């Protein structure tokens, strides 16, 4: 039998040991340790709605203007100014190489020399991406990393611009000195693509592609094959391809030996497609959200995955509703409600009162989420996130990993011992939400 004094000493030693372990270990939590609600968007999008057809038609016109803006309104000077500014900033904060050793400003100067801006622009033609392509900030596949001690530092490459879908329109303004990279204007950003990942179109091909109508893909990993049964590529949510002349077919693009575009008819599983734009309703939105749930997180499209803003952009691209590529710009779309300086419970109350489920974005610095509705008195959001902030007893910061698209409340991880509260909660850092349409644009469905 253990005496009371010995028991107290034993309890104290256990407490000290636990504190020591928590203080020395890298803070984090396995995904299974984070409590999540039921992952089904239909449970939170409870009130049926549909965007008024005339409103969606207007949104679609705006969408198509944005989607083909690089072909119709090429702006070479805008791209040059943005690129020169990016090089200047990179030299001031060079980051780390893939071996986690510091980059030098000379490394960036060498890239600037390779870019050959003295001869800019030396190209001017319309193109289409060949399969999935990772667009880079500078003409290199090498990374620039930051904060090597943080979990997942290799994921966050500051030179990763975005992942481009197959058959996305681009305008080529420039080719690098070595002929390996193309500087392009795209619907979502400027950047550099490998020269063999873009097919050059003639005027007839570009006109045919742009004239549509389009098919939207409503699931990831949909295989496309040509009429001879040969693999073309896999399409995913957010991919748009023109309807072909043949039944149940779309146009896809290949390239000849000179990288000139060859348009081919492709067949696919029609169960995972819709005429574009898909009707924007609570029912259809829930279908696409549920198909995105669980998809891995990928900063800037790394490894063919999506980050928070790309997830929402692909979701709403299916419905012909244009969203910019980054979270800050997305948060400025439509009617904006500021949450600055408000207590957390007031933020949640205002979102529940004024938010339109499925059509409201919630922003916090560096992150964007979609408000789905409520679970009791709690707002529920859909978002693709790397992880939740945790801090150990020595103040070392880490991440409780989620690493995928999930539905959560605005206080996920509150059950975690190392979660700083309330500053670790999403709601604590939320600074605004914005309505993508007006309440009067909706009709009961």
From TrEMBL:
<dbReference type="InterPro" id="IPR027017">
    <property type="entry name" value="P60_peptidase_YkfC"/>
</dbReference>
<keyword id="KW-0378">Hydrolase</keyword>
<keyword id="KW-0788">Thiol protease</keyword>
<keyword id="KW-0645">Protease</keyword>
<dbReference type="InterPro" id="IPR038765">
    <property type="entry name" value="Papain-like_cys_pep_sf"/>
</dbReference>
<dbReference type="Pfam" id="PF00877">
    <property type="entry name" value="NLPC_P60"/>
</dbReference>
<feature type="domain" description="NLPC/P60 N-terminal">
    <location>
        <begin position="16"/>
        <end position="120"/>
    </location>
</feature>
<keyword id="KW-0732">Signal</keyword>
<dbReference type="InterPro" id="IPR026864">
    <property type="entry name" value="SH3b2-type_SH3"/>
</dbReference>
<comment type="similarity">
    <text>Belongs to the peptidase C40 family.</text>
</comment>
<protein>
    <recommendedName>
        <fullName>Glycoside hydrolase</fullName>
    </recommendedName>
</protein>
<dbReference type="GO" id="GO:0006508">
    <property type="term" value="P:proteolysis"/>
</dbReference>
<dbReference type="Pfam" id="PF12912">
    <property type="entry name" value="N_NLPC_P60"/>
</dbReference>
<dbReference type="InterPro" id="IPR025606">
    <property type="entry name" value="NLPC/P60_N_dom"/>
</dbReference>
<dbReference type="InterPro" id="IPR000064">
    <property type="entry name" value="NLP_P60_dom"/>
</dbReference>
<feature type="domain" description="SH3b2-type SH3">
    <location>
        <begin position="204"/>
        <end position="243"/>
    </location>
</feature>
<dbReference type="GO" id="GO:0008234">
    <property type="term" value="F:cysteine-type peptidase activity"/>
</dbReference>
<feature type="domain" description="SH3b1">
    <location>
        <begin position="144"/>
        <end position="194"/>
    </location>
</feature>
<dbReference type="Pfam" id="PF12913">
    <property type="entry name" value="SH3_6"/>
</dbReference>
<feature type="signal peptide">
    <location>
        <begin position="1"/>
        <end position="25"/>
    </location>
</feature>
<dbReference type="InterPro" id="IPR039439">
    <property type="entry name" value="SH3b1_dom"/>
</dbReference>
<dbReference type="Pfam" id="PF12914">
    <property type="entry name" value="SH3_7"/>
</dbReference>
<feature type="domain" description="NlpC/P60">
    <location>
        <begin position="294"/>
        <end position="336"/>
    </location>
</feature>
């Amino acid at each position: 039998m253990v005496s009371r004094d010995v028991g107290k000493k034993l309890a104290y030693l256990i407490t000290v040991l636990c504190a020591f372990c928590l203080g020395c270990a890298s803070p984090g939590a396995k995904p299974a340790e984070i409590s999540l609600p039921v992952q089904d968007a239909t449970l939170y999008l409870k009130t049926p709605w549909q965007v008024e057809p005339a409103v969606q038609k207007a949104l679609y016109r705006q969408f198509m203007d944005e989607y083909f803006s690089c072909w119709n309104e090429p702006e070479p000077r805008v791209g040059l100014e943005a690129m020169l500014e990016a090089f200047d900033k990179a030299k001031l904060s060079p980051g780390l190489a893939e071996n986690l050793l510091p980059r030098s400003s000379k490394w960036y100067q060498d890239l600037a020399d390779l870019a050959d801006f003295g001869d800019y622009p030396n190209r001017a033609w319309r193109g289409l991406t060949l399969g999935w392509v990772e667009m880079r900030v500078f003409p290199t596949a090498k990374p620039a990393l930051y904060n090597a001690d943080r979990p997942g530092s290799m994921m966050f490459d500051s030179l990763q611009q975005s992942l481009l879908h197959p058959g996305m329109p681009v305008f080529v303004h420039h080719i690098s000195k070595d002929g390996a990279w193309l500087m392009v204007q795209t619907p979502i950003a400027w950047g550099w693509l490998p020269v063999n990942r873009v097919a050059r179109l003639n005027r007839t091909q570009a006109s045919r592609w742009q004239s549509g109508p389009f098919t939207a893909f409503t699931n990831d990993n949909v295989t496309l094959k040509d009429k001879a049964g040969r693999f073309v590529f896999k399409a995913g949510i957010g991919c748009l391809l023109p309807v072909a002349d043949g039944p149940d077919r779309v146009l896809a693009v290949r390239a000849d030996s000179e990288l000139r575009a060859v348009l081919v008819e492709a067949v696919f599983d029609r169960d995972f497609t819709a005429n574009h734009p898909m009707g924007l309703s609570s029912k259809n939105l829930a279908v696409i959200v549920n198909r995105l749930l669980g998809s891995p997180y990928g900063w800037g499209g790394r490894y063919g995955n999506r980050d928070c803003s790309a997830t929402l952009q692909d979701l709403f691209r299916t419905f012909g509703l244009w969203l910019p590529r980054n979270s800050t710009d997305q948060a400025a779309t439509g009617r904006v409600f500021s949450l600055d300086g408000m207590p957390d419970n007031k933020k949640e109350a205002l979102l529940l009162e004024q938010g339109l489920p499925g059509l409201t974005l919630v922003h916090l610095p560096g992150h964007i989420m979609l408000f789905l509705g409520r679970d009791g008195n709690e707002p529920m959001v859909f978002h693709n996130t790397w992880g939740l902030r945790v801090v150990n007893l020595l103040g070392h910061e880490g991440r409780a990993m989620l690493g995928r698209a999930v539905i959560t409340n605005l206080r996920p991880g509150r059950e975690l011992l190392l979660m700083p509260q309330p500053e670790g909660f999403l709601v604590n850092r939320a600074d605004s939400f914005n309505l993508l349409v007006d309440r009067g644009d909706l009709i009961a469905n």
